[in-house]
Each structure stands twice: as structure tokens, then as C-alpha cells.
Amino acid sequence: MDKDTFLVGTIDHSPPVRTVTVQGQEGYVQHGSLPNKTYKFTEIDCTYVQHWKTVVLVDRFANSVHFYNHDNGTNVTVQNSNIRAPMGVCGGGVRGSVFLCSLVTGSVVQLSARGELVKAHSVDMVNPYAISVSMDGRRIVVANNVANKETTIKLFRVEY
Global pTM? Predict the structure, then answer.
């Protein structure tokens, strides 16, 4: 949020997103549209996109992605047939996208700042679960989560 404040997702607490300062002080994201919901482990993931001043929250079992801009008070909820059991969300570097894993479709979904679908990238893996994007937004690394099997980590080049 700023150089001294971190955004964290919460488990078994409401609201599902809080702030923590480097001094250890907890706070709340000041936005009335955050869901007043308590999530269990693996039901939620979140990130903060500094450039947009936006909290991005994925709700795995609602198949939805929520964008909350705390600067101007806007919010957008995205549901799309490409987004099924979303997890592992991250901001997309200088390209200005959000990337998230869609466990059911076995893909990585790329959304714009307004929540519009940019592209669904096939990653040829079962249960993509965690994702990170390079600073220039041209490469992503994806890891899966498969019970009783070896985890796979793959590096991809993002084609625009």
C-alpha cells in the first residue's frame, strides 16, 4: 500500500484483507465493499496492485475475482467461464494486468485493471495453483498443487 504497509489476506477472520505496518500494527483496508466474510485456508487469495491502488481478491468457491480500488472507491466483480476455482493471483508488472490460476480449466487467466478478460493462457498442467510474474510482465512462473504427486513448476513467456 505504501513503503511501510503490507496487505495480507486473513484466514478464519473477517474482513478477509488487512494491513500490517513494518512496526507490526494491524489495520483494515478502508473500503466498504470488501466482503464481510470469513474464509478458510485455500478458499481465498489476494494481492495489491500498487499502480492501480487496487486490492484484488479471488474467491475460489464463488469462481469470482474482486477488484477494490481504495483510492476512488470503485469495485468490480468478475465472473467468467475461464475462471473456475481461482487461486494464486498476482499483479502483472509494467504491462498492467492481473494474472490468476484457474484450477479447473488448467489455465492462467489474464485480466485488465477494469476486470476485462485479456486472455486465458493454457499452461498444460493439472491444478495450477501459485503464480508470479516478472517485473516486465513478459514471463510468468506457475506451480501446481496435486495431492500424492510431484509438484510441477513451469516458466512461460506471455504473448500479447
Answer: 0.84
Rounded to an integer, what distance in angstroms lies between the CA atom of residue 36 and that of residue 17?
Answer: 10
Question: What are the cell numbers at 58?
Answer: 479471488
Q: Which long-range contacts (CB under 8 A, 24 or more apart) does 107-112 make?
A: 107/82, 108/140, 108/142, 108/156, 109/80, 109/82, 109/83, 110/158, 111/65, 111/78
- Cα torsion 108, 153, 1, 12 to 10°: value is 90
Note the Cα 87 to chain centre separation in Å.
Answer: 7
Lowest mean pLDDT among 19-23, 31-35, 56-60: 31-35
Q: How far apart are CA 86 and CA 42, in angstroms?
A: 10
